[in-house]
């Protein structure tokens, strides 16, 4: 996700200080990966440089002065364009797990064990996400559903690959 675009969207409702913007972002989008303050201010600096935000006011604080940022008309147009643009689906045609399976086969290691271990890890994470989903708010439920659907697709791939392992081994081994 583009942090800059998310900041612009959050700034559309009202001007905010960097700290408030970080808090709003983390509450809505970053519960698992909160932003670092350095990332917040470097992103704001870039948005300022490109004319997408402006400093709306400066207030004295206990430390450095606190700047309040507001979105510009160019920033509104930028986030509007970003929202209309569809995301490119990621087909994952070359992923790490496939590479591990092929390398295990090439080196004589037990690829079936690798698949079993991965399946167990996927199931563990699915149980954790299901627990989180039952206690979370609507945003948490939607985020967990998204992750669970991807994990389910991965599990189907793991099963299919396990069923075709002998054939794959014949094709990749010299």
From TrEMBL:
SUPFAM superfamilies: Winged helix' DNA-binding domain (SSF46785)
Stretches assigned to the Transcription regulator PadR N-terminal domain: 8-79
Protein name per the record: PadR family transcriptional regulator
UniProt organism field: Dactylosporangium aurantiacum
């Amino acid at each position: 996700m583009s942090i800059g675009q998310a900041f612009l969207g959050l700034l559309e409702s009202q001007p905010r200080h960097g700290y408030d913007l970080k808090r709003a972002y983390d509450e809505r989008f970053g519960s698992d990966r909160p932003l670092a303050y350095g990332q917040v201010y470097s992103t704001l600096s870039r948005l300022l440089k490109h004319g997408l935000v402006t400093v709306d006011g400066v207030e004295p604080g206990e430390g450095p002065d606190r700047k309040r940022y507001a979105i510009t008309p160019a920033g509104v147009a930028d986030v509007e364009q970003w929202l209309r643009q569809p995301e490119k689906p990621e087909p994952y045609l070359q992923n790490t797990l496939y590479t591990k399976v092929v390398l295990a086969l090439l080196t004589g290691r037990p690829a079936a064990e690798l698949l079993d271990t991965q399946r167990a890890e996927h199931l563990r994470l699915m149980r954790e996400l299901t627990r989180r989903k039952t206690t979370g708010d609507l945003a948490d439920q939607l985020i967990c559903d998204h992750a669970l659907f991807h994990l389910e697709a991965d599990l189907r791939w793991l099963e299919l690959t396990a069923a075709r392992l002998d054939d794959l081994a014949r094709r990749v081994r010299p």
